[in-house]
Amino acid sequence: MSVAEATAGTQAKQPTELFGKKERKIVKDPLWDNNPITLQVLGICSALAVTTSLKPTLVMCIALTAVLCGSNVIISIMRNFIPNKIRIIVMLSVISSLVILVDQLLKAFSYGMSKELSVFVSLIITNCIVMGRAEAFAMANKPWASFLDGLGNSLGYSIILIMVGFGRELLGSGKLLGFQVIPEALYQMGYVDVGLMITPPGAFILLGFIIWIQRTSSKHFED
Amino acid sequence: MLAELFSISTKAIFIENILLANFLGMCSFLACSKKIETAIGLGFAVVFVLTVTTPVNWLITEFLLKDGALAWAGLPTVDLSFLQLICYIAIIAAMVQLVEMILDKFSPTLYNALGIFLPLIAVNCAILGTSLFMNTKGYAFVESTVYGLTSGIGWLLAIVGMAAIRTKLQYSSLPAGLRGLGITMIITGLMAIGFMSFIGINI
What we know:
The complex is a heterodimer of chains A (223) and B (203).
Chain A: H1 3-8, H2 21-28, H3 44-49, H4 54-78, H5 87-109, H6 111-117, H7 119-122, H8 128-136, H9 143-173, E1 175-176, E2 179-180, H10 184-188, H11 200-217
Antiparallel strand pairs in A: 1-2
Helix pairs in contact in A: 2-9, 4-5, 4-8, 4-9, 5-6, 5-8, 9-11
Chain B: H1 2-15, H2 26-31, H3 36-65, H4 84-106, H5 108-114, H6 117-121, H7 125-137, H8 141-169, H9 181-196
Helix pairs in contact in B: 1-8, 3-4, 3-7, 3-8, 4-5, 7-8
């Protein structure tokens, strides 16, 4: 959607230093003012599916960061050799190779978590953030800038995901990372967990409100 | 057999709706639900591609990728299941291309109506997701085909319903920050509550 306009400004530059002003801008912009989920509308599926509690949310964020940074760098290195007509399939094969790596690592070192996330790690392949950034940024920029863009966007994605995961676990089961946070006394006074937050509709509605807050604060409105 | 297939269909369309319960295919759902015509076109394209790719991916898993699946070729100890993802995505991309070419040849009207949406389907996570779910649920060939078809129908229902609501929504006055994506998410949530009422129906 707004990807094209968003990157148009950063496209022509030639990075000369590692952490110059432009480089910092590439990382900082997607964190809030051009957030991939709430403003670019990319990668919403996984933002909802894995956020029932905070722990799988964090694992998902790490997995996406690894894939996005990796794919941005590799595609950016290859950008001059990829024929334009078959670029989609080339990108898809780069991305799916990286996702297979992450998936196998997760299965090897944290089998329980890999079962809990089920198909959603595999679905990073079709996560629009990865394809979107490869197409909009990595195909036109040098590897270092692309790496920073991948980092910024995955952090922006993580911020929203952690907000949703935090809200859903706290309101839905009164816990954070599996530890009871809401005191027992409150339950005795009649407090009840919001069961809706654990279910799919709760995720949609909570994300709706987060988008509302985010867009109001960054002054981005649709008509 | 028939009762089982009926149960799979009801589950895929209403109870475990691919969009409202599993959150798959959200991107195109949000982007293409502004007008009913486009929603219907994209919906049918998704149904079609799902019905074709799910059984094909089942065949690939069964005869090429599964542990010991290559026994027919004299290689009973080979396990290629780590290639699952890359094979599925290649099959999906190839199928979408094939569907595009077949439609172009035999039904140019439908091709023109769907034209722009067809290539988009390759990166719709509902397609890959259905294949992966089909695999984890361990369906047989016929069941997989029915599961693919009915998942697609569930997605079609959701996107057409949303397009209808959003057409009406244009005339309402909303807080500026909620317009567009925000309100769409909240309405999707309300729709999901509606579909949740099917949970507990035992067929």
